[in-house]
Amino acid sequence: MASCTIHTAPYSCSISRPAAKAFSLGFHQRHQQLIFFGSGRRSAVVCSAEKTVVIGLAADSGCGKSTFMRRLTSVFGGAAEPPRGGNPDSNTLISDTTTVICLDDYHSLDRTGRKEKGVTALDPRANDFDLMYEQVKAIKDGVAVEKPIYNHVTGLLDPPELIKPPKILVIEGLHPMYDSRVRDLLDFSIYLDISNEVKFAWKIQRDMAERGHSLESIKASIEARKPDFDAYIDPQKQYADAVIEVLPTQLIPDDDEGKVLRVRLIMKEGVKRFAPIYLFDEGSTISWIPCGRKLTCSYPGIKFFYGPETYFSNEVSVVEMDGKFDRLDELIYVESHLSNLSTKFYGEVTQQMLKHSDFPGSNNGTGLFQTIVGLKIRDLYEQIVAERAAASAAAAKV
């Protein structure tokens, strides 16, 4: 992890850059910068020259981002927890390797301000993209920042918290790919695409059963968000390196309960350090029903699909699962027919799924594909680290 020592003092904004030759001293060379955090202070920051790998995860509220983050951080080892000794309402999660930042923290308007101006949190006008870009870039470059906090309990903007550069930074929320400057900082990007039908079914299950909301109020809530979602959030999926698309099942005619799902992992071809997974034979078009002696399937069964498609004018590979698992320990049979999983050992996908069997989506394609994408991100990170180490070793010989 990039290590930082920070000293603050009242001062005007200025930047001190190290001599150009300092950058040729190798992978672990340390340097000092003076950066302005926007709080009227000059801060001397000492960081390692190792850059942070940045991952972007976009989705609407209530679409499974938190569960995905738990799966992802588990792949790298260690539980993700709020910053110790910090604001108890912080949205940040920190593990040994990863730091997860919620982009709601870059709201420029608090809850009252949005109401007064008649905008939602999805509207770009309610968010500070300049600060988002500056701080994500600083962290990527190995510099600590004082990041604002949006308090979801009070709806207010709380005092900032210190974020040190981790090995991997995950920025998750509504807008990680909206601003092109932020988008260009991402080493990999994912979009969770939940269809309107599934969103509606999930919200009914949660809000009617658990919160006592009426069907009419649920419909009104969804419709109120839809224009801004369609305008500002949904278009980001065209930029994603991987999309997890959740749709109603095709195994049950006219199903509207959302308990059985058809989930598609859409993987862009030609992404650096990312080889799409495939089923049986790479580049072929395959339908597969795995139910039988090696995989227990109750009604309505399980069906897989794999093949090439075009998605927003991009060539993609798609693996699809429709249905749900009865026994996760039998998932190893499915795993054995998937390739390019970036696992460390045979059965690692199954092990991860069993480890988190209590997580939402563990019995269907959402959990399966979230786990696989987590393993692919680990592989991407390890490739980047290896490339940097090789470049550093080569530079040291010059």
TrEMBL record:
<protein>
    <recommendedName>
        <fullName>Phosphoribulokinase, chloroplastic</fullName>
        <ecNumber>2.7.1.19</ecNumber>
    </recommendedName>
</protein>
<keyword id="KW-0934">Plastid</keyword>
<dbReference type="GO" id="GO:0019253">
    <property type="term" value="P:reductive pentose-phosphate cycle"/>
</dbReference>
<dbReference type="GO" id="GO:0005524">
    <property type="term" value="F:ATP binding"/>
</dbReference>
<keyword id="KW-0809">Transit peptide</keyword>
<dbReference type="InterPro" id="IPR006083">
    <property type="entry name" value="PRK/URK"/>
</dbReference>
<dbReference type="InterPro" id="IPR006082">
    <property type="entry name" value="PRK"/>
</dbReference>
<dbReference type="GO" id="GO:0008974">
    <property type="term" value="F:phosphoribulokinase activity"/>
</dbReference>
<dbReference type="GO" id="GO:0009507">
    <property type="term" value="C:chloroplast"/>
</dbReference>
<keyword id="KW-0547">Nucleotide-binding</keyword>
<keyword id="KW-0067">ATP-binding</keyword>
<dbReference type="Pfam" id="PF00485">
    <property type="entry name" value="PRK"/>
</dbReference>
<keyword id="KW-0602">Photosynthesis</keyword>
<keyword id="KW-0808">Transferase</keyword>
<comment type="similarity">
    <text>Belongs to the phosphoribulokinase family.</text>
</comment>
<keyword id="KW-1015">Disulfide bond</keyword>
<comment type="pathway">
    <text>Carbohydrate biosynthesis; Calvin cycle.</text>
</comment>
<keyword id="KW-0418">Kinase</keyword>
<dbReference type="GO" id="GO:0042803">
    <property type="term" value="F:protein homodimerization activity"/>
</dbReference>
<keyword id="KW-0150">Chloroplast</keyword>
<feature type="domain" description="Phosphoribulokinase/uridine kinase">
    <location>
        <begin position="54"/>
        <end position="252"/>
    </location>
</feature>
<keyword id="KW-0113">Calvin cycle</keyword>
